[in-house]
Amino acid sequence: MTISLKKGERISLAKVAPSLVAGFIGLGWDVNVTDTGGDFDLDVSVFLLGDNDKLVSDKHFIFYNNLVSPDSDQSVKLLGDNRTGEGEGDDEGLIVDLRKVPVDVAKIVVTVTIYEADKRKQNFGQVSNAYIRLVDVQTKEEVLRYDLTEDFSVETAVIMAELYRKDGEWRLNAVGSGFQGGLQALLDRYN
């Protein structure tokens, strides 16, 4: 049974899915019918942060030009870049093997940004039905889901969720915070 989270809600993965060792994180959205003069290209990016809430290194920024984490086990893998978001189901996704995430990574931040948003005059107010979900890779069962309900009329970047370690276990925080300035605003925040 899927647990639906609300903005700001935090949950222990050990309590809701004690056998979870690796998760598929799927993200999806729909673009409202508007004519902005260009296609919408939403991109998932992942920031692997240390205890100081900063990137462990530049290689710990996972995005369409760097699909895997730098650790030898490649514990975090982005599964490509969907440039249109068309179709049903997840538009982009990643795999996180929680057993293999190096100890210097305290937090995994999953974000979505709009590619060339300013140039294309696009924002998250033109996007609907955005969600993030966590699926147990072994059982294929959806464990958690967070549906973004806010109307971000000027924001071009959204922090969807954070996986973080606390007291030796992984937890998930449904963040749902929007930012102006696109991907650069997030890079500035975590560098």
Strand content: 35-45%
Can you identify the CATH superfamily? sav2460 like domains
The radius of gyration over CA amounts to 16 Å
Contiguous uncertain segments of 5+ residues: none
CATH architecture: Sandwich
Helical percentage: under 10%
* Major pleated sheet: 6 strands, mixed
InterPro entries: Stress/Tellurium_Resist, TerD
Protein name: Chemical-damaging agent resistance protein C
Pfam families: TerD (PF02342)
Organism: Cyanobacterium aponinum 0216
Structure commentary:
The mean pLDDT is 91. The termini are far apart. The protein has a single domain, classed as sav2460 like domains (Lipoxygenase-1, Sandwich). The strands form two sheets. The chain has a six-stranded mixed sheet, with no helix packed on it. Strand 11 and strand 12 form a beta hairpin. It has helices at residues 13-16, 117-120, 182-190; strands spanning 3-5, 10-12, 22-31, 42-49, 61-62, 76-78, 92-97, 107-114, 127-136, 142-147, 157-166, 169-179. It is 9% helix and 42% strand. It is mostly beta strands and 191 residues long. It is globular, with a radius of gyration of 16 Å. The protein is built from three helices and twelve strands, in the order ββαββββββαββββα.
Please sum up the structure shown.
With 191 residues, the protein is mostly beta strands. The protein contains three helices and twelve strands.
